[in-house]
Amino acid sequence: MRFKNLLGIGGAYSPMTEEERERCWKAKPMTAEQRERWKADAARSREYEEWVKRMLALEKELARQREQTEIDAGFADVMRENLIRDLDAQLIDIWADRPSKDRLARYDGDFRRFQKFCAELGKDTKVGDVEVTPFNLSSLPATSELVACYLLDELERGASYQSIRRSYEAIAFAHIAKGVYNPCPDPYSAEPRDLSSRPFASAVVRLARKKYLENKAKKSEQTEQKQTPA
User: Fold this and answer.
1) Using an 8 Å Cβ cutoff, are 164 and 204 in contact?
2) I want to staple 118 with a disulfide (CB 3.0 to 4.6 A). Which of 38, 135, 139, 229 is the partner?
3) What is the DSSP string of 34-89?
């Protein structure tokens, strides 16, 4: 294994036990200073042993994940043709329900703007007074935090609630079509959520709607005041 080779460990790894260390101390009398130095060395040795155990456990888990991925992919390949044959009519119905060409074109434009935002954000080499190294930000798949930053930026630039909602739907559509984690689920879904769901992007959509309703109510009030005779 990689970590075993790196550390020069062959076969089973068996660190020195506390009893063995104690016997070493008793075998040769030590001064107080030597004993304290030995204890410090023993503490560092235990830390190293724990690190080795964690690395070996990590490598084992990564190997298990790779094996599981291969099993899942193999199963999907075997079953795909049978599923296409048995569910042909239903699959055709699903495909018929896809968005119209006009909507797909709008989705494409909205998602391209999101991709441009991600590319430009990674090129910024200065955040405030701090110099940073240019980096790449993935737009597909994207994190909910990144989508939220994009939508907030659009909202601050004056984008309407309808525009924010369409951008949100476009990003969601791209992720669903790609078959990856969707950071933009239905923002008004009644399904239970917890902190692990990280609904930041959904929160921006709700904020945009709140602002939209507030502005609508304000305009309605101003119209009524104008129509009310003095």
Assistant:
1) yes
2) 139
3) HHHHHHHHHHHHHHHHHHHHHHHHHHHHHHHHHHHHHHHHHHHHHHHHHHHHHTHH
Distance CA 187, CA 179 (A): 20
Q: What are phi and psi of 228, to 5 degrees?
A: -80, 120
- State the helix-helix crossing angle for 144-156 and 161-178, rounded to 10 degrees: 160
What is the structure's pLDDT at 175?
92
Instruction: Output 24 or 155, whichever has higher pLDDT.
Output: 155
d(C-alpha 40, C-alpha 122), whole Å? 45
- The domain limits of the chain are 2-86, 100-227
CB of 191 closer than 8 Å to CB of 141: no
Which positions ≥6 away from 178 have C-beta within 8 Å?
A: 140, 141
Q: What's the pLDDT score for residue 213?
A: 93
Running DSSP on this structure, what letter comes out for residue 22?
A: H
Q: How far apart are CA 230 and CA 228, in angstroms?
A: 6
